[in-house]
TrEMBL record:
InterPro entries: NAD(P)-bd_dom_sf (IPR036291), NmrA-like (IPR008030), NmrA-type/Isoflavone_red_sf (IPR050608). The lineage of its organism: Eukaryota, Fungi, Fungi incertae sedis, Mucoromycota, Mucoromycotina. This is NmrA-like domain-containing protein. Gene3D superfamilies: NAD(P)-binding Rossmann-like Domain, UDP-galactose 4-epimerase, domain 1. Pfam families: NmrA. Residues 8-230 form the NmrA-like domain. SUPFAM superfamilies: NAD(P)-binding Rossmann-fold domains.
Amino acid sequence: MTMQPQADKLLLIGATGQVGRSLLPFLRKKFQVAVLMRPKTYASNPKKVKELEAEDIAIRQGDLDDEDSLVNALEGISVVVSSVAIASLLSQLILIKAMKKVGHIKRFVPSDFGIDVRNHTDDVPSFKEKVQVHQALFDSGIPYTIIDTGPWMELTAKGFGGPLNPDFELVPQDIRLWGSGDTVLTMGFLDDNSRLCAEAIADDRTLNKRVMVDVNVTTANQLIETWVRLGGPRPRVGPPVTEDEVVQLISHVTDPYMNFGLRIMHNGHFHDGFKRPDDYLSTSELYPEVTKACTTVEQHYAKILTDLKQSTAT
């Protein structure tokens, strides 16, 4: 891969997670990228080390619980991007201390990539942790960019924005919309989000700003009309799902992944959590040409319909 000689060196933390894996190839087009790996993982997973080295990706050893190891890993690094999982969000507090100590970090992107955590913070436990990380970052004086992407289209467009609705079929389905069905839904495919995240991370205009990746801005009712316009069967829409129903459901769901998803959808549908706040920059406005190359709802639904028809024909 050809790299600009003066490209900043970027350290990606959480490179093996879903978001990190998606971000990595797009960041490499903008920066000289190194990934952080725990010393224990480095020693016990030679296959992974060889895979990264074969792709000419540098590995920095460090542990998010060890400030000194992070200081060493940050040598020569200008930009830090964190995509750590929810369970490790507060470990970024130690990372911020290490970045403050080295004193040469030009930009830190904390692990957000969701929705505005200031909006009804009590809705989702991890929101409070992200707010805590943000405050520590602001207090540190380290330049930053906070990026949110909304929910992934892979998940949200399915069921017309209703996580409890059945998957698509070529016959009419019984569905229920959360609330009125007119709540704003901002979503894009994970890789499209990552492509735009990389643009924002390399852009001086986004320094010390919040950014929303807004590839597709729609509503549940608009999703239904798009599906029907493309030839899909119109679903039978039942009574709306109320907020009280969702709150009760959240209190009874014990699976952590499902509970988290329900809490996010509750915030989005009933507290306007999927709408771009006024103090966020818009990637569709900043990078219109890149956005045009991203997958639209129409393209996504058209492919689903084609696949369903082909499956039925065979």
